[in-house]
Amino acid sequence: MDGNPRLAGILGCAAALVLVGCAANFSTSPTSAQVRTHVLRYLPTRYAAHALVRGSTSGVGVLSYYNGHVLLKPKAYLIFWGYKKYGDPDRVAPLLEAYFKVVGGSSHNGVCTQYYDVVDSKTNYITNFKGQLGGVWFDNDDPVPAEPTDGQVVQESLHGVSHFGYDANGSYIVATPHGRNSQGFGTLFCGYHSATSGSGGNLVAYTNLPYVPDAGTACGAGDIVPPKDESAKDEGVTIVAGGEYGASITDPNPGTGWYSFEYGEITECTGRGIQNDPFGKKSYTTGALYSNATQSCVQGYYGRH
Q1: Tens digit of each residue's pLDDT (9 = 90 or more) over 169-207
Q2: pTM of the full predicted structure?
Q3: Which of 165, 181, 233, 258 is the right S-S partner for 250, CB 3.0 to 4.6 Å?
Q4: Looking at the 3D structure of the chain, how many domains does it have?
């Protein structure tokens, strides 16, 4: 299927946010809780130079392992920050809940299972089990700033940890509501993930997931014919969320898991090869993920589960 080259560039940028950098003009002052400071420099020519031809799923760059942890038994924790107060006109919340209920065990998520970490000389592979939605929380008590900074997203992710409890295999996804997106969204990134430090120094993998339909075609809307029970406007929701989840699983503390300092993470393919994947009885629009095993961008992998 055709991919969106603009989306590919933005998502590639998001994948490299922490160590390579992508954007200026939004606050990234680190809090005391953050493990790694974001260094953001927008390099559009770099990503354009390496962009794949529209529709291509050829290989980009092999990912290397940098001796850090991965999420071996991944769980997604959805934090809908202010959704009921500020609105969800495109019904992003039910779409994300439905998607994360079935992404576990899918061939798409199976791409992650070829990656591993090494602890005490033991190689541990990522697993792809059913039921990876760890919990859903509608936080309607904490006000959402007009343009949340990274530090504010970090704090909300830690509120999520307090609500759900700490899970070393958890990916804490902060979804901001309609009209309340971080500066640079839709022009410099569609979403990104990073890591922070919780109480006791526990590593917390978090994702900043803006209200994707607000960005329109810049973040995947109308990229292909949508699944029958979705609209073209919300296609980017699962493209972006699915890509960031895969990146969070394989590189939860960016640059210490599976990473390419030339091309980014497993999401280096996410804006390309877009298609509707059947997960259970429904289909969801997803982007390809990078497979070291085949050295290509793929929509599924069955080698290890």
Answers
A1: 999 999 999 999 999 999 888 999 999 998 889 999 999
A2: 0.85
A3: 258
A4: 1
C-alpha–C-alpha distance, residues 288 and 39, integer Å: 26
Cα 204 to chain centroid, rounded: 14
What is the spatial distance between Cα 171 and Cα 168, in angstroms, rounded to a whole number? 9
Domain assignment present for residue 88? The answer is yes
Q: Could you tell me what percent of the chain has a pLDDT over 70?
A: 79
Token pair 């006000």 is found at 143
Classified as helix, coil or strand, 40 is coil
Q: Which residue, 245, 275, 292, 300, is CA-closest to 14?
A: 245
Rounded to an integer, what distance in angstroms lies between the CA atom of residue 108 and that of residue 220? Answer: 18
Q: Tokens at residue 264, please?
A: 């980014």
The verdict on residue 101 lying in a domain is: yes
pLDDT over threshold 70, residue 282: yes
Q: Distances in Å between the alpha carbon of 237 and those of 231, 245, 285, 301?
A: 11, 12, 8, 22
**Within a domain: residue 52?**
yes
Pairing of β 133-139 and β 64-65: unpaired
The span from the CA of 24 to the CA of 16, in Å, is 14
Domain that holds residue 271: 5-298
pLDDT per position as a tens digit, 50-103: 233 333 345 567 999 999 999 999 999 999 999 999 999 999 999 999 999 999
